[in-house]
Write a structure and sequence with these properties.
It is a single chain. The chain is elongated, with a radius of gyration of 53 Å. The strands form four sheets. It has a four-stranded antiparallel beta sheet with strand order 5-2-1-8, with no helix packed on it. A four-stranded antiparallel beta sheet has the order 4-3-6-7. The protein has a four-stranded antiparallel beta sheet with strand order 13-10-9-16. It is an alpha+beta fold. The protein has helices at 60-65, 79-82, 113-139, 225-230, 278-285, 289-296, 408-418, and strands at residues 150-158, 163-172, 185-192, 201-202, 213-221, 232-239, 247-255, 265-270, 298-306, 311-320, 333-340, 348-350, 361-368, 379-386, 394-402, 424-429.
Length: 442
């Protein structure tokens, strides 16, 4: 009688299909599993196949309870655990570091207490000197000590025309002032003492160069022989900055007394940074009247008596170094001329107004019909004013030429009367002469 076998169940407990029945080891079903009941009928020694195992059923509560218990609650680590300086509670400060004192070597044998102390003092002196030299070396590493460049220029004093010609040739090896390693240099000139906008001259600006070549001539008018002995010319090289303030590179100074009349002298000097002494400037200001007159400026006047027309020709050529009367540091000057005693409207003249300048050039001539024999009784009053729109004009300075004048003014008037038909030009310093009377106090 043959018994058909069912297909093998999908379980790892089932034997392989090629294995014999004698080698098969049957495992009895567990009594705890109610879903696999025992066979109801007895069979012979033929093997029996196991039923497929049923999947394990777990409740939802048991599923969430597996590996969920975190155990004991641990404190959350804080940043103070890793960086102790952030602790909220006060901590004892760390002990100060001990400075290591280098023991000075004693190479010699000390005979006694006094000799040992002397040896230590001798050894300390070179060490302190070495430290001082090192400190000086560190302090001297400053911008003032670095190389700033050189400047080449030529000076010529024209005694006949009272002019100082300053020819700026070139500069070489200037210090870089811009971020691109270059500079936009220009040169400005001042006469010391009394540097101001009135005696300031300036060259053009050259872009992006450390070796500029200007080849530009600037002129100072109204320079007398006295100025050549007392004045000093300062030439400053600066870097122009459109967005900010112009930067100072360096300067040179030349005393005008080093120049000879009619002889040009070429200079090649290294730029430096000179600290200005305010006390010296105060002394020059406190000396008295000459400085006060110089601050008002000078005027170049020409006189000529024409015998053909029987008239006096008065020429107002130019002014130099005028005082600044406006808030912008300049003036709007013009000149008034009056021949005294008053001859009516024909005796008063006025030049045109020159805007925003302290060195105006007029080149205007005025005619007074006066017999030659009456000039000795006349006085020519010349005054310089600053024009103000809608306000009273400001008096800058004046000068009087006539028989009652003194010094150069009297000399100028006499030469005009003596040399008939010849034009005589002289520079005159402006003073308080011709100033309007002050209103009485109320």
């Amino acid at each position: 009688m043959s018994v058909s076998k069912p297909p093998p169940p999908h379980s790892h407990f089932a034997p392989p299909p090629n294995s014999s029945t004698s080698s098969h080891l049957s495992i009895p079903p567990s009594s705890s599993t109610p879903s696999s009941p025992a066979p109801s009928r007895a069979t012979s020694s033929a093997p029996r196949s196991l039923p497929p195992p049923s999947p394990i059923k777990i409740s939802m509560q048991e599923h969430f309870a597996i590996n969920v218990c975190p155990g004991p609650i641990m404190p959350i680590p804080q940043i103070s655990d890793f960086f102790p300086r952030f602790h909220d509670f006060p901590m004892t400060p760390p002990p100060p570091r001990e400075k290591k004192i280098l023991k000075e070597p004693d190479f010699g044998l000390s005979n006694g207490g006094e000799t040992d102390g002397e040896n230590k003092e001798k050894e300390r002196k070179p060490i302190e000197e070495d430290r001082g030299e090192r400190q000086e070396g560190v302090d001297s590493d400053d911008d003032d000590e670095t190389y700033l460049g050189t400047l080449e220029f030529t000076l010529l004093f024209d005694h006949e025309n009272n002019c100082l010609h300053c020819t700026i040739h070139k500069a070489k090896g200037l210090k870089a002032m811009d971020s691109n390693g270059l500079a936009d240099p220009y040169v400005k000139l001042h006469l010391l003492p009394g540097a101001s906008k009135a005696n300031k001259l300036r060259t053009k600006t050259l872009k992006n160069t450390l070796n500029p070549v200007w080849s530009e001539t600037l002129m100072y008018h109204g320079i007398t022989a006295i100025d050549m002995t007392t004045k000093t010319l300062r030439l400053c090289v600066c870097d122009m900055d459109r967005l900010g303030r112009n930067e100072f590179i360096g300067e040179v100074r030349v005393a005008l007394k080093k120049l000879s009349k009619g002889e040009s002298k070429r200079f090649k000097m290294g730029l430096e940074r000179i600290t200005q002494n305010k006390d010296i400037n105060k002394e020059t200001v406190e000396q008295g009247t000459p400085v006060a007159e110089e601050e008002r400026g000078r005027i170049l006047v020409s006189l000529c008596y024409s015998p053909e027309k029987s008239c006096l020709l008065v020429g107002i050529v130019r002014c130099a170094h005028l005082a600044a009367m406006d808030s912008n540091g300049y003036s709007d000057p013009f000149v008034k001329i009056v021949l005294q005693p008053d001859m009516g409207k024909k005796s008063k003249y006025k030049t045109t107004v020159k805007k925003k300048t302290l060195n105006p050039e007029f080149n205007e001539e005025f005619v007074y019909e006066v017999p030659h024999d009456q000039l000795a009784k006349k006085t020519l009053e010349i005054s310089v004013w600053d024009y103000d729109l809608g306000m009273s004009n400001d008096f800058i300075g004046g000068v009087e030429l006539g028989i009652n004048a003194k010094g150069v003014r009297l000399k100028h008037w006499f030469e005009c009367l003596k040399h008939i038909g010849k034009k005589v030009e002289y520079w005159h310093a402006l003073t308080q002469q011709g100033a309007p009377p002050e209103p009485p106090p109320q």
